[in-house]
Amino acid sequence: MTEDACDDCGDAVSDALARTVRLAVDRTQIDSQRLCPDCFAGWIDRYQAEMQPGGMDEPTIDDDDIIVD
């Protein structure tokens, strides 16, 4: 079993426990991070908090011209 460092905290993490987060735009990979379980859980929490719709500080988009591929 190999162990490499978590890209966030730097702690060693075994392959069996590591999670890889990949960001791709138009099928082109922009970023890839190998995370330990704790950092992955934190990433998920941040993702959910930032991607939740309906905050008072967020603008409302009433545009019918948005294209989702």
UniProtKB/TrEMBL annotation:
State the organism named in the record.
Answer: Halorubellus litoreus
Pfam families, A to Z: DUF7569
Recorded protein name is Small CPxCG-related zinc finger protein
